[in-house]
TrEMBL record:
This is Exodeoxyribonuclease-3. It comes from Bosea lathyri. Probably binds two magnesium or manganese ions per subunit. Keywords: Hydrolase, Magnesium, Manganese, Metal-binding. GO terms for molecular function: DNA binding; double-stranded DNA 3'-5' DNA exonuclease activity; endonuclease activity; metal ion binding. Mg(2+) binds at residues 7, 34, 147, 149, 247-248. Gene3D superfamilies: Endonuclease/exonuclease/phosphatase.
């Protein structure tokens, strides 16, 4: 099972890039961030023609997240991160696909720091950490994938000394990521490439792509039931060099097939009166 995460930086403006990559890479599941499109402008026709079912949570001009599944329809279990009913930014969506609970997230950038945007980022991080602890208690396969807007270590940034005051690299942001991971989540890419400088983002400015002046912002956190099945993880970095490319490249993991059948009950946290239970079946 191949699962990818891709900050497309505008799904309609870069649809040709997304469709080309889907055809070449053929991931089973894709988490998309930064759609920059309201729900009504999500290109579901083109996505479906490419062979993917989809759920999405859009927003005009900014943010937006989606989950695609090849040859299947994702079963939505949550839309929006819990903890603040007044937060209307489209940054979190979650679904069950083939017995695995997959969360797609787009954590706030937070710049300039300090300031209101940074404060919002840290509150959002804390809400994610609180909810992630609840998810771990479910004892089902879970993946938290997306653009976290944090470089966890100095290996994840081309010149660490230039980023110490940035909201993506401040000590309190890295500590928040570390605290989240230490709940029991495995950083997939770093686990399989422990000493390598691997980037997922290259700015459009100052020839960052040409100089390989990158950042690792896009991460997969896996709970123990998924981590034991991890067999590969990498970045399709060449996509960043395509015409009309996003400033991010797709990141992906590959999981072995689970052979131990289990059945769990998962309660949807979708807001409103239509709360319901879904069966997660691993086969």
């Amino acid at each position: 099972m191949k699962i990818a995460s891709f900050n497309v930086n505008g799904i309609n403006g870069r649809l040709s890039v997304l469709l080309r990559w889907l055809e070449e890479a053929r991931p089973d599941v894709v988490c998309l961030q930064e759609l920059k499109a309201p729900d009504g402008r999500f290109p579901i026709g083109a996505i479906a023609k490419a062979g993917y079912g989809a759920i999405w949570h859009g927003q005009k001009s900014w943010n937006g997240v989606a989950i695609l599944a090849r040859g299947a329809e994702p079963i939505e279990t949550r839309r929006g991160l819990p903890g603040d009913p007044e937060d209307n930014q489209s940054r979190y969506i979650e679904a069950v696909i083939d017995g695995t609970l997959i969360a797609c997230l787009y954590l706030p950038n937070g710049n300039p720091a300090p300031g209101p945007r940074f404060a919002y980022k840290m509150r959002w991080f804390q809400r994610l950490t609180d909810y992630a602890a609840e998810l771990l208690a479910l004892d089902v396969p879970i993946i938290l994938a997306g653009d976290y807007n944090v470089m966890p270590t100095e290996l994840d940034v081309y010149k660490p000394e230039r980023w110490v005051d940035d909201a993506l690299f401040r000590p309190d942001v890295r500590e928040a990521f570390r605290g989240l991971a230490e709940q029991g989540w495995t950083d997939a890419l770093r686990t399989l490439h422990p000493g390598e400088r691997i980037y997922t983002f290259w700015d459009y400015l100052r020839n960052a792509w040409g100089r390989n002046a990158g950042l690792r912002l896009d991460h997969f956190l896996l709970n123990p039931l998924v981590a034991q099945r991890l067999i590969a993880a990498d970045v399709d970095r060449d996509v960043r060099g395509w015409e009309k490319a996003s400033d991010h490249a797709p990141v992906w993991i590959e999981l072995s097939v689970s052979t131990k059948p289990t059945r769990r009950r998962l309660r949807s946290a979708r807001p409103g009166p239509d709360r319901h239970e879904l069966s997660i079946i691993r086969s």
